[in-house]
Write a structure and sequence with these properties.
The structure is a homodimer.
Chain A (H helix, E strand, L loop, with lengths): L2 H35 L4 E8 L2 E4 L6 E9 L4 E14 L15 H4 L8 E13 L6 E12 L4 E13 L5 H18 L3 H12 L1 E2 L4 E2 L3 E8 L4 H26 L6 H20 L2 H9 L4 H4 L6 E3 L11 H10 L6
Antiparallel strand pairs in A: 1-2, 1-3, 3-4, 4-5, 5-6, 6-7, 7-10, 8-9
């Protein structure tokens, strides 16, 4: 077999495997959540119709599925998404402008509208009912720019982070420890780098606060071979349910008051502020047309609140949380 | 008296009068709202402390007051603000960058951090409890750049708009008619221009929808003498309570269901999306440091909701509203 053909086939095998890793996480984690909640996800598939997305069966070159679980017994609202899309950026939109890339390599792609890309990934945003259970977010993705079989540039991105309304240190430690373990198995520099990156990324600058207690975050990761990084990312996708679901199980039946529930809604309000002002994923989703606004906003909380003065009384559990949000802590 | 001194005194008189017009609206409209609701506003004053705002008594060069009414009998949450601030833009921030100016004159001010400015204005964002009563927003303001007595550039901006959860055509007509009357008394080109400007400005582009049924909006208005424009803006400040409060009075005791209340929360969710992604005033407030984030977010609704699929059933009252949001209508 000629070398070029062999390379092409090898890359196609890698792409299929990457897609399968994300699809496995999507299905497997949804299954674990359904088992814990008792309620099933509803599913919405999208199809391309003259460049627009309409509800309908996926085609082979664009698999795009939303899942939603609302008003469950444990979870108030969950938004999940899986995509494996071959496409072209719409005119006037580049990865750079849409905020998905900030590296020098990306600069070269600037102003090349119509650039072909392949993107696959899965995301979870989980809003539990009980205010003692933290919100969790997780998203892993692979992007490549250029021809499917000969990309000019490729990278992995993703992470997982935790947003408690009430801080239980053992939960934050467990979430970080689980992710640190996976990072350490691949590269001992990963956890410290990705923990810090997470603290920097999930920062609500206009409030001077983190959105939660963090976790890991990375983007434009391509410093090892694609196959090696896929192994790492696959391990991350498996770590997320292990890091989060035991916390849910242990807190879901905790007692709480109306005051606790209202505080949860205020915390969700800050979550909304982050998504709408700072989240690069949401901005890219809206700007690129790669997914619909309905899918982008699948991550929104079911009910969020704002009040004129939401500073908690000093010495309260709510104030203890604020302190950590204003000064991120080392958890492991 | 030398001519230059006379000019200086005349401008100072104009500034004081402008400030008084906004302060009058602030106090008078708050009073009318308190009368309708039965509950009183609480007040928060801010003082400068080494360039930061802290709660405390205003100084003479920076009057900055928030008012808030929450969980009233008619209104669920109202955020009101009055400012009359002499200041300097913080380093790295210009009016242009902060999005407050987009004209060619403004370009000249680009990159002149530390530019002195004077700003005075008042704003109201009113979230009623009953979903049959529309949300109302109103803001009028005067800005000038340069020395207080010899500004390089000045302008008025402002407007008022209505965001119903349920559309009553007579309410939209009354709101527009009241504002049209005031516009027509000053310049018959104003209402058509400012109505269209409002439709364009209060547009949630990622949703392809207006946030409501509009009203009037204008910015960088300086095409007449400052004194003439102040007369127009003063008339606008008086029109707002006449345009809105009769609607409140007529709908506040209307019957509604839990479904109506949940739809109101979804509409408020879109309102939040607009404020956080598109509102130039909010962005300028956060970027300029002219006011605190707490004041900027005084406009937020008390409780907003998101659900995966919020498209209303065809033929419903909710669907009738959506149709108008997707295709702005002429109301008078």
């Amino acid at each position: 077999m000629p070398q070029a053909l062999e390379q092409t086939q090898k890359h196609e095998t890698f792409l299929k495997k990457t897609e399968a890793v994300f699809k496995h996480m999507f299905d497997h984690t949804c299954g674990s959540i359904e088992q814990l909640d008792g309620q099933l996800f509803s599913e919405q598939r999208w199809a391309r119709d003259n460049g627009n997305w309409v509800t309908g069966e996926n085609s082979s070159d664009a698999i795009y599925i939303d899942r939603s679980l609302q008003n469950g017994s444990v979870f108030e609202k969950i938004g999940v998404n899986f995509v494996a899309i071959n496409g072209e950026l719409p005119p006037g939109v580049t990865f750079q402008k849409a905020g998905a890339l900030t590296t020098k390599e990306a600069d070269k792609e600037e102003n090349k509208a119509g650039t072909p890309f392949f993107a696959t990934g899965t995301s979870f945003v989980i809003h539990p009912y009980n205010p003692m259970v933290p919100i969790a977010h997780c998203n892993y993705r692979y992007f490549q720019i250029g021809k499917r079989d000969q990309p000019q540039y490729w990278w992995f991105g993703g992470g997982a982070d935790l947003t408690p309304a009430y801080l239980f240190e053992e939960d934050a430690k467990h979430f970080h420890q689980t992710h640190k373990q996976v990072c350490d198995q691949h590269d001992t520099t990963y956890y410290p780098r990705f923990k810090q990156w997470c603290d920097q990324y999930f920062h609500i600058s206009h409030r001077g606060e983190s959105r939660g207690v963090g976790g890991i975050f990375f983007d434009q990761l391509n410093d090892l071979s694609a196959e090696e990084l896929l192994e790492f990312v696959e391990a991350c996708t498996k770590a997320f349910p292990q890091a989060y679901l035991p916390i849910v199980a242990r807190r879901k039946d905790a007692d709480f008051t109306d005051t606790n529930k209202q505080w949860q809604r205020l915390v969700r309000g800050r979550y909304v502020e982050f998504i709408l002002t700072s989240d690069r994923g949401a901005r890219f989703g809206l700007a690129s047309g790669m997914v619909t606004p309905q899918s982008v906003f699948n991550c929104m909380p079911p009910a969020a609140a704002w009040t004129y003065d939401d500073q908690p009384a000093s010495g309260s559990a709510e104030a203890a949380l604020k302190q950590v949000l204003q000064q991120p802590r080392a958890w492991v």
